[in-house]
Amino acid sequence: MARLVGCGTALVTPFDAHGAVDEPALRRFVEWQITEGIDFLVPCGTTGEAATMTAEEHRRVVEITVEQAAGRVPIVAGAGSNDTRRAIAQSREMQAAGATHLLHVVPMYNKPPQRGLVAHFRAIAGEAGLPIILYNVPGRTGVNMDAATTLELATVPGIAGIKEASGDLAQIMEILRSRPAQFSVLSGDDALALAVIAAGGDGVISVTSNATPRRMTDLVTSGRRDDLPAARRTHLALTPWMRAAFVESNPLPVKAALHLLRMMGPTHRLPLVPLADQYLPTVRAALIAAGALTQ
């Protein structure tokens, strides 16, 4: 099982003015991401508002992404749930939809202990049928997966890597220090991507690459080639956008950015709402600084 590496976009899901999935916009967006050089795509995660999709919509978004990608890049489909049985069923749906990998988030709300996380992910890995990327994001789930737990799971057949969004560099370094050779460690925070890659990480699953896929991919490629001066220059150029992309809850700023770039409408599903007007100048200025938008 080859290690998943590079820059992957945690895809935004475009909705039309009536709140339905905007399939033509999604196809155009996937094509643009690939044309811009992105390494892999991650539909139906946090940024894609998967929490408000029906099972049918979830599968259709992945199917469209797979169809449009046409084998050119891996597709890491969100399949997570805080119900292990549901996570297994959703994994099978994503496999049938054509995904190459699965993204499985640490269960939210239940707050299982670390041994519960091990049991949850072992059960999924035994049934899923595709390589699994674990997703540790305690800011969303209320539970941090410890480095020791991640390293235990890294030895389980079928578990291929982790999107680490704890924000804890010491924890990430411990995983990097002791991981098996084929276990991918991907930053789940854009602002920490350079630090993680410089320490030996494999890349990032990025929010900001929705609007700046080429530049984020360049950052990751330079870092993985040990061209740290080039990676640093790109990181510093993107820093205003990395900050602006989180001035309100993700994906509000990035969807506003994509509306400014005329990629899709600004529609969200409740309880999410469009970005507050006061932040639009910040997002616009950051996109200009990143070279994504002209004056």
Name the structural class: alpha/beta
Largest sheet: 8 strands, parallel
The CATH homologous superfamily corresponds to Aldolase class I
Summarize the amount of helix as a percent range. 40-55%
Give the DSSP E fraction (strand runs of 2 or more residues): 5-15%
Which parts are unreliable, with pLDDT below 50 for 5 consecutive residues or more? Answer: none
Structurally, how many domains make up the residues?
1
> Based on DSSP secondary structure assignment, what is the total number of beta strands?
8
- Order of helical and strand elements: EHEHEHEHEHHEHEHEHHHH
Do you know the CATH architecture?
Alpha-Beta Barrel
Total helices: the number is 12
Radius of gyration: 18 Å
Ends apart, CA distance between termini: 45 Å
Shape: globular
CATH class: Alpha Beta
Biggest β-sheet: strands ordered side by side in the sheet: 2-1-8-7-6-5-4-3
| CATH fold-level assignment | TIM Barrel
